Amino acid sequence: MDPPISPASPKLSRGRLVNCYSCIRVNTLKSTPDSVIEKLRDIVKGASISKCEVEGLEYLVFVKGSGPHSVDYGCDEDGNVNPPLKEVLVSRKCAEAVLRGAEVYVPGVLACSAHVEKGDEVAVSVSVEQPGAEGGWVVGITRGTILQGAETDPYHFERSGMYIGRGKAMMTRSGIFRAPEGIAVDFSDRVYNLTSFHGVLEGEIFLQNLPSIVTAHALDPQKGDHILDMCAAPGGKTTAIAILMKDEGEIVAADRSHNKVLDIQKLAAEMGLSCITTCRLDALKAVCSRNESDDITKLCCTEDDLDATIQGFNLMKSEVEKMEVIAEKDVKKKVTNEKANERTYISRADIRKDMRRKRNGPGRNQCVGGKAEKSKGFAPNSFDRVLLDAPCSALGLRPRLFGGEETVESLRKHAKYQRKMFDQAVQLVHPGGVLVYSTCTINPGENEAVVRYALDNYKFLSLAPQNPRIGGPGLVGRFEFPDGYTEEWLRPGQEELVQRFDPSSPLDTIGFFIAKFLVGSKEADLEQPAT
Questions:
Q1: Predicted confidence (pLDDT) per residue in 115-137, tens digit
Q2: Collapsing DSSP states into helix, strand and coil, what is residue 388?
Q3: Is the pLDDT of residue 227 over 90?
Q4: CB contact at 8 A, 436 and 387
Q5: C-beta of residue 92 within 8 angstroms of C-beta of residue 138
Q6: Range 367-402 burial, b when 16+ CB lie within 10 A, else e
Q7: DSSP label at 195?
Q8: The pTM is what?
Q9: Is residue 20 among the annotated active site residues?
Q10: Strand ranges, E, within 365-446
């Protein structure tokens, strides 16, 4: 069997593959850091747990992990395993989550050895994208494939020798590919040991990367503010902002994805936050005329709406059973009325269908937890503060087992769309307001170059100091590509006004970038710059 992942592997990026701690944001509206630490010590036995010492971030809790570890797959000196371990192959996304402490759930399994039985010892490997026959990168493996575990296996190179641990199979092979949910492998040894917080202290804590929390502080939200989070999913920064505001004000959390908007609603309800309004909105079409714009006050949740959402997401089994009985009666009544003289038959499928209809409503947009309203956009100068956490190349995320899909051209394309989104965001902040731009990439073209574009094209914008400041300085100067294209970065003196988080720094975070702008007087009409 191929050797496990090791820090010396050429596949791994500079520095640690994974930041070896979990950063937990405490919901200070429901609990305190000391209370959370006391509870976690009962749940996570033996782990090192501490509070953040940075001024202003004392409500953060760190749970230390460890790694990378050498996992014993039973190899001899020649690298052979006798007898060979059976193998479970997972998707790259699943593997990245496992390296952060998650379990292997059945949807993440792509293939495994033949005759895997419950309780069998298995090695867990990773499927990594390979060059496609027609260009690009693909995962050329069908879910349910049988692995042979040798170099003659046509899928050998799909795994590229990447193993992330070993454990016991929790299901048979057939069960893994038939079950809709559940844990497929119970790990006994991992390359990185971090605690899984799935289902732990829900509503009291939220697992979030440190730079993302700093972004919420950079916005400096105040009670009563009208705030727009333009690309809000999955809602971590939105809820962090709401808690900093003490849940007093109005936050519009927008995203173009229907399902992601519902996820934000669910998280807000779980954390007991009532100042968050959600809507479907394309960030490239966020500005509209005043006559066509959405009324923010109509979008905001009421306390009754929040209570209904919380009840919907916390529907208990007893309530479902009651609904099932009612549904059965209703279906019987309906059939009896329609066919009074005929024998009635009520299938369990009909009962479950009627129960789901009563619980979820008649269609997708009527599901429990609220409807994802589509926004027409907002009038210029509608908000006190706007956060644009722009979609990006995500080159700063950790762990990241593959980044080959990005090219110079694709990176430039990301920057082009980010500038267009910035053009929208800057129009929505009124004079005297604040605009924060952030990404989770280390690419200067999506970071410093966008800041330079903003300052050159909107003279009423100025960079502002950020608090707390724990990231490093930005990049100054320019870069000329071989094709003649020149990327302009920051000017001297501006580097200390942004925060650049380097994954290889001692701070041990993901790669991230934050810029804060103050919006001055907009004396002249805004014109759309050429992008």
A1: 999 999 999 999 888 888 787 78
A2: strand
A3: yes
A4: yes
A5: no
A6: bbbbbbbebebbbbbbbbbbbbbbbbbbbbbbbbbb
A7: -
A8: 0.81
A9: no
A10: 383-389, 429-439
